[in-house]
Predict the 3D structure of the following.
Amino acid sequence: MTKPLVRATPFHARTAAANLENAWVTRNGITLASFHTDTNDEALAARLRVAMADISWRWRIMLEGARVVEFLSKLVTRDVSRLAPGTSLKALWLADGGGLRGAAVIARYGRESFLLAASAPDMDWIALAAAAYDVKLRDMREEGGLAIVGPYAQATVNAAQLTADLEPLAFRKLSWRGIDVTLSRFGEHGGYEIWCAPDDGILVWDRIARAGERFGLMPAGVAAMDLLDLEAGIVRPERDYAPARDGNANGPSAVALGLEFLIDPDHRTFNGRTAFLAAREKEAKRLAGIEIDSDRPAPFTPLLLKGSAVGHTLRSVWSPALRRAIALAQIDVSAIAPGTKLTLTLPPSLAVPELRTSEARVSALPFLKVPDPIVP
Amino acid sequence: MSADAIVVGAGVNGLVAATYLAQAGRKVVVLEAKDRLGGACRTASFASGFQGPTLAHALYALDPRAVAELKLARRGLKFAVRDMPLVLLRADGKHLVIGRDVRAAARAIAVHSRADAEVWPRFRRELFDLARAMRPFWWDEAGKKMPAAIGMLHRLGLAAWLDSQFESDAVKAALAGDAAPLSPLAPGSSLLLVWRAAQEMCGLQGASAIPLGGPGALIDALTAAAKIAGVEFRTGVHVSDILMKDGAAAGTVLDSGDEIAASLVLASFSRRQLLATRAGRAAFGFSQAAELERSVPAAASAKVLLALNTPPAFGGIAVPLRGRFVLADRVETFVTAHAAARAGRLPEELPMEIVFPTVGDPALAPLGQHVVSIRIAPLPRHVTGGWDAARLAAKAIAALDRCASGLARHVTAAQVLTPDDIAAGAEDECVESVERMLSHWPSRIRTPIDGLFLCGAASEPVGAVSGRAGRIAAALALREAAR
């Protein structure tokens, strides 16, 4: 039997049923609902009530071996050696030349086992490096992942009879009414994630759907989750930036992507450290938000200050919560102050085929804070 | 125990580096894994009454600056043979002798091809001019810019270059022997010939020479110079790791677990050997490490020493026995040998370089008897079933016997070092490449670890007994330490 080109997730039967407009996208080789009913409704549900989203497309590998701590000290930009089992941290990994290759949650499962969960795979690099440290890699992508986000996320998890007293970045293996799951708080949106065996996917989906019913839970597609990420100022590889794939690449820069806080310069051993530290001072661009005085998004467009380019936008969307188009942008330090007025050219569209310019303002990130949990 | 500087490996480069460091006022200790000094440069007894060069049997790349500055002549370095003519041996007796006299060489070449005899003076002049233009680049750290004169040669295979100049197999095979580390088909292998011509021995460009007492005598002179400068030696100690402190080298860790502290470490390691240490593994980037792990040298060499109870005699055209003899029919002998080496097979014809150390230095053998030193390269690093030393020696003797008939009957003793034996000494770690020949000195000497410098043969543009890497590494290390 040949390997299928796209794989379905353990929740596929349910997402397919909820996918009323048959809108599918592929991410990391996995087919996912782009939206179920309407992207904006789903994003608002995640902001005001509660939403659940299939995040089984995240690349996950388990790293095991006696020298795994030594290996991770070399691989990632923060020190994992003092991480306690059941906790995690976020870190980056860099090419030899200092270019950003990826970002991940590193969760410690045991003394000699760590889970690495990332938005984009980088198997060649990590497998190559792990071999030198006798670290074994185990692909965990078969497992289902369901994210529950929104002010009522905790209430929903409680209502589903799952213990929800977890600190952010912590995780716990639980036996949940007859099935084994891992409950975690790796996500940036103040929610929870449930990781389960492939066969238990439908059961998990149904239990959460039922528990969240009274809080107005909606299944959210990839588009709504991408929108939440943008409102929170989160950049992900292969979506917001092209990660380095050459071993000696010196770009993209973690500094210009606002990810410098995930690099601990006092952690001496990480790959690409010398090159990163040398390039850090020279990097003139920083990540910022842009609020556009228009309802039309303007992705990958130059930003002008008094006629001269000071940066460019990255991904751009219409935000239903802010009721205007917003974008992430890389802007020169000189023009980064929130409120700085810039101009940009809106891309032509079917409705407005000619080029039009628009005013835009620099905004601090995140555009919107994560809402506090509501426990009824 | 502590010192200002540690030098790992007491080969020619290690000794040169140690002496320069000590002369600059540093307290230097040299650590050697073997029980005796010398690395690839040793003279040892291999049969009762017979001594011979264990590995290197002729010197052709010794750094004249190091020789002069370390006053090696005053420390006892004398030469038994100062300029060895190149001799191509042929089974049909039409041996080809190419010496320093251009006209005599042209006359010898004319036996094989009149056209080639006419080309030879011009070719040799152009080669030597080009080689001199490349000297600053290969000889000094300051020589940063690649001379424009090199033109297309860094992309041209030696076979193609020789084909464009000469028609006779004999001339081409003789010259190809000097570029044996790379296949004559490899792009840029022409540069090896230029590099060889850029060297200088005993004041003569492109010469090969043998020290009186064999290559071990060079080590004796260097050791004497080092001891006068105040260098301390420890033999039989194996360095297992680089001691690290605050992200920089702070000394060495020995197999015994002992640590020796020093703020400067100069190691005769190749980059691959450095990667095998824990500190090296931590310091190299993943991509660099993968590159190093891929670049395993395909070709190795073997060394055979024979004891002869009679002077060697060759039929046909008279040959000077103080020469260096190449045994290869055609350029293709080297091409197929390289292909066989890559495939892990023993080549049909063994390309050999032969030297008779006892011709210039009769003290190495009992009166009237002789030593034959044979270097066989390229050979595969491993062959299926393992190396059979006796079979390798028999094959080499048989090949030699075809040109010097009856020689096999006069062999009274033999010592064979197979590629396995040589690799065990870890002196054959260099990966020859055009990139290496055209890279700058600091890029070969510096490491990702501050305070650690590579001063061994692997830091030379081409692996050879030279001392230049030791001299330049010492200068670089002292300059960076002063910062």
